Every structure is written in structure tokens, then in C-alpha cells.
């Protein structure tokens, strides 16, 4: 896939508005706060912003429960505030990608309210009758009429059954997430048309793309078959992803809405979405999305339970990236991410959040920005933020974390929060949702000094913040800025083919990028060699023979100040040292 695209060359910055910057001092981040920070984003050098949902919402899941797709929630401001953000970004050549939630609405959405009354949208959601509790092998809930169990045994992502009983309609509705997030029935043509209308509305407002929330859950398996009773994610994660009509729906969405516009469209694809399945979603031959988010790499080191941690090795991580880098070559485009609002901080996860925090943050960043694909930077990642230490369950705000832990306690699976505290602190979605750290002052400059932030601050905010790092040219922040510039300056880092030269090494990840001449704007920069020491010990790096002795520019190194000419030779890499050589 040699064709150039702005969204292949872009670095995307993800803004979780609730935690980014608070303009009105109520303790919750908002659009006015974001507009004020447009210069910050321009200084960092990012090309696009992915904005998490700001639509009208009762906020059962921080905006992923949308009550009106065409309105901005009061928490974040007004439509005028949103337009000010759009304009502030566009004036700085930063594009705007909106998060869109096609799989479910809020139960407070007018469509659902009308549906439960069997009005015009009666069949827009997944409604089903319950079953006789005596005839099924799973538990009835205390909801619903006596002796009646939900239609099947699926569990919701956030704990509990995936069905809730509605007293008004006297039927059950499907919710793969919270009960306040009923799933839409995409097999109903009017549902699809209604969603396309919402998407068009935002495109007409001049945005540059969409991140499509759990897009691969839209097509449910016929007849709602029961899943494995022992698997907590039996239906939602095992049976629903990439369902029977999914590619029909996504291709239709593309043709109806996206076709003919040059958009960044990225579909979140959860569950087992392998390379071949992914290729069906993306350009050029697939359904037409620009790229997808898969979960293969962020699943490493995690068990079934939220708090469960497993051993992992660098070779596991390499195997996943190698599979996607080579697997999509010529078939589609990769997204590159470690962090987002659902994932723990990568420095704590795959790096070293103590002694080599700066070095590991910059080393990991080097990987993401020198692989083939579009890198996504999540707010605070550019500071090398780490997971905070939550002291009690009361400090969490995330519906998934709170529900999962409470339920496990009630079911007797665990004794207390304390019993799983370390694991929850390692994996909770709130690990990355603490406020952005702007200054070393009160509330980290996120909100007014006397305001109460909606979620606690990370305990390290006085030392780790934008203000401090911008004055220090050796900081993680400055490294990100250089990395973003570097990728922009060298086509080989965007379009070059990837080859891993150390697939079996548990310490060193050394790979090359090679640009075939046809794809090159600047044939002088046709090759790159990247070597990462993914460890706190010294390690020997041997360049591949085709590169050894070659004249190159050491374009970036997380231990040195400025680019310099060099000959590529074997060297002893320092802990977490990252080097990027670019060759004439
Ligand atoms: O996430 C889907 C998703 O897979 C996660 O919520 C997942 O359940 C969790 O990370 C596992 O630990 C998307 C959004 O990114 C998320 O914020 C929403 O809560 C969810 O969809 C529902 O809209």
C-alpha cells in the first residue's frame, strides 16, 4: 500500500477531556480548557487530536453512554465551545477526530425511551423475552419477574448479566456494557440510517475523522446462543466480536458516509481480531476504514481477572508487533498505541517506572514512532506518566473497576479490595485517567487551586509536569517533540518496510526500515536502523551486516543531545538506550 495519506503521516494525540484541562474551575476538564491548550499541542508537534466523547450524556461510562449525538454535554461546555476547539486546532493545522459510539446509546436517549414504550423505535434495540429459570443452567437475577431468567448467560464487560429487565416493556434488553448502555440492533435498517445521519452531522461541522468505539461488536450472532458458563467474558468478548454481518455494516457505513472524503477512520476492534480479520476492515480492498485498534499487545501480561498479572517476555511483545507489521504489509495500515483511557500507563506496564523511568519512557516511545503505522500519544504519555497508587476503592471512579471489584467481593471470590489492590492499581482504567499535570502548583494546574478534581491527582504531580519538563531539554517531553519531528522529516520512518533483526533476543530489539524507491519523496533517506535496549542492564547491539560500517546519521538517541554523523558499528547499549540511525 504505497499511496500517501495525511493520516499515515500524522501523529495523533488523544485528549480525554474530563482529565485534560478545566476551563471553568469546577474540577472537570472541558472544551474551554482544551481550546486554551491548542498552542501546547502545536508546540509538541502533533497533527491530529482524537477527542473522547463530549456528547450529551448521563455519564454512566464517562460519555460512552450517549443521550444525544448532536449535542455537547454541559459538563464540557456548549456547541460554541466545541466549535472554538475545532477552529483553534484547525488554525494550527491540527485535525480533529471525534470519538463516535455506534454500538449502544444511553438508556436516556430518546430512541431507547421510545423503544421501551413500543413506539416508533420499538425494534431498534435487542429486546427478548426471559426464560423459565428452572430450565437453564445459569443464575436468574433478582431483577425481572419471579422464576424468570435472562434470555441467555452472557456477562457484561462491566460485570453482571448482559441483560436487564425493563418493567415498562416487560422484556429484557441487551447491554454488553453498563445497564445504562443498551445495545442498538444494527440489523434494523432504520438504525443504521439514523447512525449515518449522526456521523454526517459531525462531518458537516468540518471534522477530519472518527474513532469508532467497539465497532466490531455491531453484528450480534443470530439467536443469542449461550456462551461458556465458566468464562466471565463468554458472550461479549467471545461470541459477539466480528459477527456475521459486520463487514456488510462497516462497508455500508463507509459507502454511505465516508466515501470520497479523506478521513482518518479508526475502528476499535476488541476480542480475537487477528491480522486477517483486520485486513477485512481496512483499505484498500476491505470495508474502507483507515485502520483499526487491536488488543493483541495490550493483552500481554494480563489474566482474565482485572487484577490478574502474568509473566511476560520481550519476545512476546515482538511476536505481536512482528505479526502485525509484516501481516498488514501491502494489505492495510497499522495503528500504533500503548496508552489510551482504558489502558494502564505503558511505563509501568512494559517499562521501568522507578530507576529508568525517563529512559524507558523514551525507549518505548521510540518504538511506537519508528514502526510502520500511525502513532497515538495519550495525554500525559509525553511526560512519561506512570500508574498512580490508589489507596482505596473509594478513590476509583471507573464503572468497570468499581463494579468488578464489588461484585467479586459480594460473590466471595476475593476478601477485600486490599487483597487485589496491587493488581487493580496495575490495570484499572483509572490509572490513566488522573488529571493532566501542567504545573508543579496546586492541582497540577489542571483546575482552579481551590477546586476538587473529579478524580484524584497522581501523587507525583509536583515533579512530573509540563512546566518542569519544558524547561529541561533532556526531558521525556522534549524527546517526544523530537521524535514527532523526526518521523515527519523521514518518509522511511512512515512508509519503509519493517524487518526485525533480533526476534529471539530478550533484551535488544533491533530492526530496520527500508523504503522502496517508488514510495520515496526523498530517495536520500531510504533506510533506517533502530536499536532499543529494552532492559535496565547494558546490552550489546550488533547491527545487521548490510548496515554495519555504513555512514549514517544518528538522528535520535535518548542519551544524547543532538543528531550527529556516525558509522554504524557494534556498541554497548546503556540501560533502555534507544538509537535511531537514518541512512543516505
Ligand atoms: O472500550 C471497549 C473495551 O474493550 C473496554 O472497555 C474494555 O472493556 C476494558 O478496557 C477492559 O479492561 C470502549 C471505550 O474505549 C471504553 O472507554 C468504553 O467504556 C467502552 O468502549 C464502552 O463504550
UniProtKB/TrEMBL annotation:
Coiled coil: none
InterPro entries: GH (IPR017853), GH13_cat_dom (IPR006047), Glyco_hydro_b (IPR013780), O16G_dom_2 (IPR045857)
Glycosyl hydrolase family 13 catalytic domain span: 14-427
Enzyme class: hydrolase
EC number: 3.2.1.20
Keywords: Glycosidase, Hydrolase
GO molecular function: alpha-1,4-glucosidase activity
Compositional bias segments (type: Polar residues): 433-442
Source species, domain of life: Archaea
Annotated region described as Disordered, given as residue ranges: 426-445
Keyword Cell membrane on entry: no
Record family assignment: Belongs to the glycosyl hydrolase 13 family.
Protein name: Alpha-glucosidase
Protein's organism: Halobaculum marinum
